[in-house]
Amino acid sequence: MLKQEIAGALEVAFSQYGFAEPSVAKLQKLSGVSLRTLYKYYPSKQAMIVAALEYRHQRYIAFLLENAPAKGADCIVHIFSRLKHWMEQFAPNGCLSINALSAFPDDLEVSSAVQKHKNEVRQLLAQQSLQQSLADVLFLLHEGVSSAWPVMGDDAVISAQQSALLLMKGKS
């Protein structure tokens, strides 16, 4: 359990301070454990970043599906509403995964963690929409909201919801 608690603290730290600014000493302080304990579970800053991304992924998927209606159009509208709340509460500066990839474009472990997260979000949208053929376009709408949020705010979500409904009605 301690390993997960540390990963959660690391997620908050990277979300709040970015990836370049916090030193390992600051991450240790923010995680509330000794440096020895931090390194026991996460032996490098890279491992800490990957752990934070993986922790955030699990939390994000659960957040999107919280109180979700049955699969279909209503569920997709719900997911985009939840995305709005996520952006407001946890990601006002955009997607942490994309920020990590931008900070470490050549890091294979970070890239792999981001790729896994994005693929699973894409599959979630396909499953919840009941329309596998819309997986890519729903994913692009999702990513568009995440990217446009700092500039467009609510308007990005409303546009994505309207577009998703139009696409799903056209495929019915």
TrEMBL record:
Report the superkingdom from the record. Answer: Bacteria
Domain HTH tetR-type, chain residue ranges per copy: 1-60
Tell whether DNA-binding is among the UniProt keywords.
yes
DNA-binding span(s): 23-42
Fetch the Pfam families from UniProt.
TetR_N
Keyword Transmembrane attributed: no
| InterPro entries in the cross-refs | Homeodomain-like_sf (IPR009057), HTH_TetR (IPR001647)
Instruction: Tell me which positions the record assigns to the signal sequence.
Output: none
- This protein's UniProt keywords: DNA-binding, Transcription, Transcription regulation
- UniProt name for this protein: TetR/AcrR family transcriptional regulator
